[in-house]
Amino acid sequence: MGFTNWLVQKFIPQAEQVMDVGIRAKYGYLVAWVSIVGNLLLALTKVFFGIMLNSISLLADAVHTLSDVVTSFVVLWGFRLAAAPPDEKHPYGHGRIENVATLIIALLLIGVGIEFGKASAQRFLSNEVVEGSLLVAVLLVFGGLFKEWMARFAVSMGERINSSTLVADAWHHRSDAVASILVAVAMVAAMFGYYRADAVIGLVVSALIIYTGWDLARNTVSALIGEKPDEELVEKITATAGSVNGVKGVHKVEVHDYGPENLLVSLHIQVDATIAVLDSHQIAAEVKYCILDRCGALTTVHVEPFLAD
């Protein structure tokens, strides 16, 4: 992870302050721009050789790579919006716009995958001549390895700031890496006259594009509807609240997700029934501070008396 650490040190001052909204945004920007530049270079290379060799699988793979560029712009936009302050109509921020934009991209991906699937099926029936190239096959293998590095880079950054968005984006890179290896196989097969291999791989890549779009759409719709909060997060919030001096019990923990880095939590704490109201208020304030510091969420705390059985 030496190169990853170098990138972080070079482009993210005070990188260790991962709970700061501005620092988190810089992590997102770094991942997005590495992805955008890398994928653009790969996509343009694939388009050039795809047209030159008349390869439908290589062109489909190029579109798959370009879809990662678009997804990265969504990530970039999402982190930028997450840092924007709420307004009168949107008191909880604008983070869910990322989900809406992602859903649109997912539907476009599915449409592109279907069109390339049709073209691949027609190519299979016509058995059109495809020029194979060992050089292009080697380049695709190296491209696949580069995409795997991008996937691991995104996972590393996502784990550092606890961002499911970055971790999910890594799987797009990984699927493109698999597609590149498959297209390399088609390039070698075409050299020996197995032209239909290009169409078959084109169908596989098209299916991969459709699946990526479907999975992206399914997860996005689920988030928009309102998913059950992550159990580990609930346990962390409960443990954090319970660790505050004076808290006798914690229950009814609810997590409301309003987009990246915009979580609202409500919970009930139990305190000694004999303490003063001011003391219970101070305990609740400490619970709010600890959850914000350790979990990055704003919290509404309901105080109840602890009654021993």
Record keyword descriptors for this entry:
309 residues; mainly alpha; three-stranded mixed β-sheet; 10% strand; elongated
Oligomer: single chain
- Helix content percent band: over 70%
Helical stretch count? 9
Kindly state the mean pLDDT as a whole number? 84
Sheet of most strands: 3 strands, mixed
State the low-pLDDT regions, or none: none
Shape: elongated
Pattern of helices and strands:
HHHHHHHHEEHE
| Structural Rg | 25 Å
Counted beta strands: 3
- Straight-line N-to-C gap: 54 Å
- Beta-strand content estimate: 5-15%
Strand arrangement in the largest pleated sheet? 1-2-3
The helix/strand class is mainly alpha
Give structural notes.
With 309 residues, this protein is mainly α. The model has no long low-confidence stretch (mean pLDDT 84). Helix 9 links the parallel strand 2 and strand 3. Helix content is 70%, strand content 10%. The protein has a three-stranded mixed β-sheet with strand order 1-2-3, with helices on one face. 39% of the residues are buried.
